[in-house]
Amino acid sequence: MTPMHATRRWVMLALGVFAQSSSAVIVHGTPFLLPALTDRGMPLATAGLLVAMPTVGLVCTLIAWGYAVDRIGERAVLVAGPLVMFAAGAAAAFVTDYVLLGVLLFLAGLGAGSTNGASGRVIVGWFPPDQRGLAMGIRQSAQPLGVGIAALTIPTIAAAHGFSTAILVPAVMAGLAAVGCGIGIIDPPRPAVSADSRPANPYRGDRTLWRIHGVSVLLVIPQATVWTFALLWLHRDVGLSLAVAGVLVTGTQLLGAAGRIGAGFWSDRVGSRLRPLRTVAVAAAISMCALAVASWLHWWWAAIPILVAASVITVADNGLAFTAVAEIAGPYWSGRGLGIQNTGQNLASAAIAPLFGALITASGFPATYLVAAVIATAAIPLVPLPRHIKPAP
C-alpha cells in the first residue's frame, strides 16, 4: 500500500460511492419512469423494453470497462463513464422518438458500467489491509443508496414535471460525479513491469477467483429473489397495503447497505474475506429456509422479521467477494476480475424475475424461497479456503 493522508483516501472513496450511486439511479431508477412513459401513450411492453435498456448496456460492457481500468487506470474510467451517462441522459430528456430514446438509454447503461468495476485498485492501493473490507463495504453500499435516491426522486419528479425532467436526475448526478472524480481520484502506483514480461494471469493455474465468482453468482440468487418479489409477497400474501409494504422494503434496502458495511468491518477484524464469506453463505441458506417455512405455515409474525433479516444477510457477501477479488487479482487484473464478477451477478439477477416469477405462479412463494435456500447451500462448499490478507504490492 502506498502512503497517503487518511482524509484523502476517504474522500476518494466518497467520490467512488457517489459515482456508482449515479449509475444505480440510471440503471435501477428507470423502471420508476414507467408511469410517465405510459402516460405519454406508450404501450406498456414498449415502455418495459425501454427501461431495461440501461441494464442491457451495463451488462454488455462490464468486462470491457474492467479491461480499461487495468490499462488506463480508474481515474480516467471514472471520468469517461459518468460523462457518457451525462451526455446520454441529457440527450434523452429532449427526444421523442422511441428508438432513439432506447439507444440513448443503452448508451447511458454503457457508461454506468464504468463505475461497477472501478475503485477496486484505489481501495487496495490506498487503504491498509485492515481497512479494505470496511472501505469496500461502504463502496458496495452505493447500489442500494442509488436505488433509494431513485425511489425518492424520480417518481415524484416524473409525476410533477414529466419524463424529460425526471431523466435529468441521474444525468446531473453523473455530470457531478465526472467532475468530482476528475479532480479528486488519484490512481495508486503499480509495480513496474519490464517490457519483456507481463503480469501473471491470476486465473491461470488457480481456481480461487473462479470459485469466488461462482459463489457470488449463487448467492446473488436469494438476494435478487428477496429484492424482486418482497413487495409483491408482502402485499399479496401477507396482506400489507402497498404503502406500508413499500416503506418496509425501503427500510430493508437501507439495512442491507449497513449490512455490507458491517460485513466489511468484520472481515478486517478477522483478517480474512473468505471465512466471513462462508459464514454469510450459511446464514443466507438458513434465513431463506426459515422464510420458506414461515411463509408456508402463514406465520406472518415470524415471516416478516425473517424477511428483514434475509434482506440484510443475502447482500452481505457482495463487499466481501469484491474485496477478495481485488486483492487476489492484483493491480494489473483487478479491473477485469471485478468486471467478470459483475457480469456474472447481473446476468443471474436478470434471470430471476422471469424464471422465479414463473415458479411463484406454479408453486407459490414458499417453494420459491426453498429453491433459493438450496442454491445458497450449494455456494457453501464452493467458497475457497481462507487465506490471510496480504498488503498489495
UniProtKB/TrEMBL annotation:
One Gene Ontology term, aspect cellular component: plasma membrane
One Gene Ontology term of the molecular function aspect: transmembrane transporter activity
Keyword Metal-binding assigned: no
Compartments (UniProt record): Cell membrane
Domain Major facilitator superfamily (MFS) profile stretches: 9-390
Highest taxon, organism lineage: Bacteria
TM regions (residue ranges): 47-69, 76-95, 101-124, 145-161, 167-187, 208-234, 240-258, 279-297, 368-385
Organismal lineage: Bacteria, Bacillati, Actinomycetota, Actinomycetes, Mycobacteriales
InterPro entries given in the database record: MFS (IPR011701), MFS-Transporter (IPR052952), MFS_dom (IPR020846), MFS_trans_sf (IPR036259)
Main location: membrane
Annotated keywords: Membrane, Transmembrane, Transmembrane helix
Protein name as catalogued: Sugar phosphate permease
Membrane topology: Multi-pass membrane protein
